[in-house]
Design goal:
Layout: H1 2-18, H2 22-45, H3 55-71, H4 78-83, H5 89-109, H6 120-141, H7 147-160, H8 169-172, H9 182-202
């Protein structure tokens, strides 16, 4: 009995990761990054396009990555997590930060060149914003439906945003803005901080 109690704390991170679909989430993120790299290269190679052709990839790829991270927050042991003696919020936060960094880094590598336009900085910003919204949605709707709000919002913004960057659109249409837009970074960063805090403190909404 004594041996079991002593080894349990060291096994908690492993048990936490096993309760999530981490391998599937990592495989999905890798696939999204490869698909984004191919699509960005193909679009930009078309003679009628320039670097702005990567805007669909800049919007869609972070949505897919955020959806993979959000649905990966689902746990079959949520009741045990909430009744555990040790606090789980550090593990939730670390898990989210690690997956966000991985997704942002992989997708940033998928769009090399033109960093001042629709390149790596804009991709990182959109990953942060989309993941933050998805994390917040997980606390309200549950992990399985967490992808819905950001997907609906991202699709609406893509259709309605003006093609000229800046102005008021930099706030409400931040996924469509080029990299240097400070207002877009402020909105996306705020969304990530709020979403990560809510997820860490409350966790995903329990689901059957």
């Amino acid at each position: 009995m004594t041996t079991t109690v002593r080894t349990l704390p060291g096994r908690l991170p492993v048990l936490y990761l096993r309760s999530r679909a981490l391998p599937a989430t990592l495989a999905t993120l890798a696939g999204i990054a490869l698909l984004a790299a191919w699509a960005a290269d193909w679009l930009q190679s078309r003679p009628q396009f320039d670097h702005t052709a990567r805007v669909p990839v800049q919007v869609l790829a972070p949505l897919l990555a955020a959806a993979a991270i959000g649905t990966g927050l689902f746990s079959y042991t949520e009741e045990l997590d909430r009744t555990a003696v040790r606090r789980w919020w550090p593990r939730r936060l670390t898990y989210l930060l690690a997956l966000t960094a991985l997704a942002a880094g992989a997708l940033a590598l998928a769009v090399p060149g033109h960093p001042e336009q629709f390149g790596a900085p804009a991709m990182v910003r959109n990953v942060l914003g989309a993941t933050g919204v998805t994390a917040a949605a997980a606390t309200v709707l549950g992990a399985r439906a967490s992808w819905l709000p950001m997907t609906v919002y991202g699709g609406a913004v893509y259709l309605a945003a003006p093609r000229t960057p800046g102005g008021a659109a930099a706030y409400w249409a931040w996924p469509m803005q080029p990299g240097p837009q400070a207002a877009a970074w402020a909105v996306a960063g705020t969304a990530y901080v709020v979403g990560a805090a809510l997820l860490a403190l409350r966790g995903p909404r329990p689901e059957r």
